[in-house]
Amino acid sequence: MANNRNGQDDFVRPLRRILVGALAFLLIALFVLWRIDSPRVERFRAALVNRFVPSFAWAMVPVTRLTVMVEGFQSYASLYEQNQELRRELQQMKAWKEAALQLEQKNAKLLDLNQVHLDPSLTHVTGVVLADSGSPFRQSVLLNVGKRDGIVNGWAVMDGLGLVGRISGVGESTSRVILLTDSNSRIPVTVEPSGQHGILQGDNSAIPPLEFVESPDAIRPGDQVVSSGDGGVFPAGLLVGQVVEGPDRRLKVRLAADYERLDFLRVLRSHPAEHISDPGGLIAPPVPPEPAGAGTTGTTGTTGTTSGTTGTTSGTTGTTGTTSGTTGTTGTTGQVGGNG
After folding, report:
1. Which stretches within 36-56 are classed as H helix?
2. CA dist., res. 294 & res. 147, Å (int)
3. Looking at the DSSP assignment, which residues form a beta bridge with residue 197?
4. Contacts of 329 (CB under 8 A, 6+ apart)
5. How far from chain centre, in Å, is Cα 340?
6. Whose CA is closest to 206, among 141, 257, 135?
7. How confident is the model at residue 244 (pLDDT cuts 50, 70, 90)?
8. What's the whole-number mean pLDDT along residues 169-180?
9. In the chain, which ranges are E strands?
10. Kind and range of the H or E element at 97?
């Protein structure tokens, strides 16, 4: 076996040398051929290229595909970066949209506050709602205005649509508003156009009942409910809501204020009620004073009349009355008493 292997090596080595020499000679010939500057050689080179180069197109397919893949990957990377940039811009646009919506809502509420028509004598302080009670048993909100802004307990509070509640607790820079829906809230109201009076009683629901109505049959669903001003707690004429009829046929009030979005509230400065210290002027108008002389003569004449009706001495007394009453009509009365 060793002899066979040595024989094969002796045969392969010369053949390999011949192939390597031929390949080297061919390469050198091609190099020299491409270096010769001659028209004939140029035509030969062109014919050689046209003959052999197209047949090597299959060898360029992997290179072409690889080039296309590289370009596609670069394009994909560029698209990915653009997509990420668009995502970031979309997130920013969403944040700006939310901010724009919030500003639009605040602007609308402020415009609603400006459109509320109130008594010109009433001034107001606008505050921002900081927090709510968050309790089903107490309906209240916290405002960012307090004693430093002149807020006083009991003042009425409105939003851009209607009455919200009243001030119940004042701090230095904050104040608490008890809402109309709170179970501790009781306000006197008037139902228009019937003019019926009643009490709006909070029950921790969105539609509080209307109690103590004089004539419930005179009230219809849809009638407007305003504050009556009784007791001096609230100014009269503030919009509260509309009358509705509950499932149990009880009269209730659908409040005009938007309790779901209490952002800005208006605190109305109420003026204290005028206290009447002299009730006598309410009984009868004052009587103008009479002249001093006529009053004295009338008194004397009356004395003469009374004396004339008593007996024999009435004549003498009547004469006195006549003498005293000669200055006026009352004196004549005294004379009649003396004759009697």
Report:
1. 39-52
2. 63
3. 190
4. none
5. 90
6. 257
7. very high
8. 92
9. 123-132, 140-143, 156-158, 163-170, 175-179, 186-192, 196-201, 210-211, 224-227, 239-245, 251-255, 264-269
10. helix 57-115
